[in-house]
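dumping this here before i forget
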Amino acid sequence: MIDQTFVELSRWQFAVTALYHFLFVPLTLGLSWLLVIMETTYVMTGKEIYRDMTRFWGKLFGINFALGVTTGLTMEFEFGTNWSYYAHYVGDVFGAPLAIEGLMAFFLESTFIGLFFLGWDKLGKRQHLAVTFFTALGSNLSALWILVANGWMQNPVGAVFSPETMRMEMMSFTEVFLNPVAQVKFVHTVAAGYVTASMFVLGISSWYLLKGRDLAFARRSFAVAAGFGLASCLAVIVLGDESGYELGDVQKVKLAAIEAEWKTEPAPASFTLFGFPSQETQETHAALKVPYLLGLIATRSTDTEVKGLADLQRDHEARIRSGQIAYGALQKIRAGDSSPDTRATFDAHAADIGYGLLLKQFVEDPTTASEAQIQAAAASTIPTVWPLFWGFRLMVAFGFTMLFIFAAAFVLNASRRLEQHRWLLWMAVAAIPLPWLSCELGWFVAEFGRQPWAIGEVLPTFLATSSLTSGDLIFSLAGFATFYTVLLIIEVFLMVKYARLGPSALHTGRYHFEAHPAE
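structure:
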């Protein structure tokens, strides 16, 4: 039988390292392109202030990049140490985009970030701008390949299970790369990174304006962040809608759980804006619904239903029974029975082998599972709803709050009325943590929502672990949590230190007294 404590500890360790790592990633993704915008303006106008903007924000970018790399390396090794059966089962497919990320993107950004910091006095303007551009390109390509790998975990296309090798084998790299879930996740994630960096620059620039220091620098940085942030925030909302459509197509359980859609309702489905979902009674108390909205998001139509969790669970029960047949045929093939009938039986039910494996949580041989065990396995395919329901709504609430701030900042800055509205500046400072909270919630919803699968409908999470002890996991989890917390404290300390020093540290007093500089 499966030791659930061990499985949960394995999940907790990977979740802790992943969520800590993703505190650094969004700022790297977005700030790199803000540096490109600032340095491009410097090259085009020749104004030294834009060079200093690039150097100052680049210093904060460098701090964040270094700590992001440190926290990310651990996760690469965890696939082998903590999830060894996962690595064996899907390594041929999952390892390809990660290898490309290391060989192409990571080395690209690592090489050019060194030139970014050391090349200011050794390279020409356009040469250094090219270095900054390739640094940004490398960081975003890195995200692309990692999200191709993650997207395949959500929607495993372009690969089939081989009964001879007992592994997933890649059939089409093109399908893996062009996986619609991966592509939507990539553009949504990088856009969220652009929002994060914009709010970071906007908030710090607002603090300078409130303190009456580094005014020319702060106004220009504020203007860049407001425009880039507004465009990025609108993109996140549009791409989030596209993500909802992809969920409705390939991850119906996750969508239904996010929306607490317990039962299939007549089309078009309503969107539950607010409520208190109950897993026990399978209903949402005090539900406030918006008619038609969920149907439009999930199906792009008003006449297609969105399946509820109860109907999806019944569908999974049928697939578990089919998976039992596939598992029985697989055992015969492994025992040497290569007859056409046995192979035909396996091929007919191979798509459901993952559902058959769900039974191993309750019985050693899935073909001998009782009716009660089949029912329990079907119930396990439905994740806990309330964390997904509220996690998604908090993420959306934070997103629309940031949209308001960026829109107000853009309008007031364009009309030169910004400093008459100090409430907005204080709001921008207070909102600096919001994009990080939104990003963490987004990753939580994406990963928790696909449980009980390590690879969607292919490999259950409880089968993907390594042969470690609970003591090993408790020790390493405590160690990682402590070490990563220290790194986070170092990051915050350095960011606050250099933000307080401000751009005047580059040229003492240079920007302090300029009231309304000509653009």
